[in-house]
């Protein structure tokens, strides 16, 4: 019978101080956040662990991009499995800004003005499709001229990172740091976004294709070469499923922290709690795991700040 303790903000001098108190305070999601940081700390300190980050692209349109960039820059993860929007937003924001908006704005007015709304983030056309066409097409032409006509997604994303070497805002880019630190980024659904659409457009003029099976070969080799596996999964969908799907063939994940806003009762993968993955062998029976319900743009900065303080 462990008593619940009140949070004392006067003693919370750092993010880690606060997270530690949240564990003692209980309080629904607060304790889950604290347990999540404990699991991430164990995962990061385990030298035998291959660490997977899985997430969709939407949060990269927000300031959370900086949190993910720091994880990659500091080599705290081994691979990223994501969606095409991740590439779109990270690459586009190197040259053009996204701006603040509101969930309740008039979308008909925004459409007339050529502004896309992603939640409460506004993306002018010039900051998205136009800048991606101006930057991705020349890169594809260069790669084609060098003679290679078939690429895995992780290979072409590494080339995108390499192409930023002389850009002044390169240090803000996740793709750039992934290239510098040789951390592969896999996008199983590469054509479901602006960068993928640019690749498709280029393929209409030149012989150029993406070999998705080569991505699977790379993921498989990394999984099977691992002594242990851990995952930080943000949101569900194809990126989460790809991570846990491959993990089952290696005996399951040893660690998993899952942040989601989805509900469990509809049977969706996005809503599936980490414990459900145990039945599939995607998570080991004795794994350290937690599902945290909430918006990662609010939760992850606190969690990673506490984690980095511990490390």
Account of the 3D structure:
With 311 residues, this protein is α/β, with parallel strands linked by helices. The chain has one domain (53-294): Deoxyhypusine synthase (Deoxyhypusine Synthase, 3-Layer(aba) Sandwich). It has 13 helices and eleven strands. The protein has helices at residues 15-25, 29-45, 65-73, 84-92, 107-112, 129-145, 153-162, 174-180, 194-203, 212-224, 237-248, 274-280, 296-310, and strands at 49-54, 79-81, 99-100, 115-118, 121-124, 150-151, 185-186, 209-210, 228-234, 253-260, 283-293. It has a six-stranded parallel beta sheet, sandwiched between helices. A three-stranded antiparallel beta sheet has the order 3-5-4. Helix 3 links the parallel strand 1 and strand 2. It starts with 14 loop residues before the first helix and ends with a helix. The model has no long low-confidence stretch (mean pLDDT 97).
């Amino acid at each position: 019978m462990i008593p619940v303790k009140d949070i004392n903000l006067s003693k919370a001098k750092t993010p880690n101080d606060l997270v530690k108190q949240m564990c003692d305070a209980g309080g629904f999601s607060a304790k889950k956040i604290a347990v999540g940081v404990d699991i991430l700390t164990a995962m990061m300190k385990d030298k035998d662990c291959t660490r997977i980050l899985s997430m969709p692209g939407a949060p990269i349109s927000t300031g959370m991009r900086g949190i993910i960039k720091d994880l990659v820059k500091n080599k705290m993860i081994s691979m990223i499995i994501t969606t095409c929007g991740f590439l779109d937003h990270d690459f586009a924001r190197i040259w053009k800004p996204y701006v603040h908006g509101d969930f309740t704005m008039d979308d008909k007015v925004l459409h007339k003005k050529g502004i896309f709304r992603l939640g409460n983030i506004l993306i002018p056309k010039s900051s998205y499709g136009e800048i991606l066409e101006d930057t991705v097409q020349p890169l594809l032409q260069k790669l084609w001229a060098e003679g290679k006509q078939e690429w895995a997604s992780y290979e072409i994303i590494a080339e995108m990172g390499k192409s930023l070497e002389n850009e002044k805002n390169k240090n803000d880019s996740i793709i750039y740091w992934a290239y510098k630190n040789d951390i592969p980024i896999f996008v199983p659904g590469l054509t479901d976004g602006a960068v993928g659409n640019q690749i498709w457009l280029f393929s209409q003029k030149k012989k150029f294709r993406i070999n998705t099976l080569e991505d699977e070969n790379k993921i498989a080799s990394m999984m099977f070469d691992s002594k242990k596996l851990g995952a930080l999964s943000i949101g569900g969908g194809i990126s989460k499923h790809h991570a846990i799907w491959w993990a089952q063939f290696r005996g399951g994940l040893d660690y998993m922290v899952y942040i989601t806003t989805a509900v469990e009762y509809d049977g969706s993968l996005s809503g599936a709690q980490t414990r459900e993955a145990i039945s599939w062998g995607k998570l080991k029976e004795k794994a350290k795991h937690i599902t945290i319900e909430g918006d990662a743009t609010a939760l992850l900065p606190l969690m990673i700040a506490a984690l980095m303080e511990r490390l």
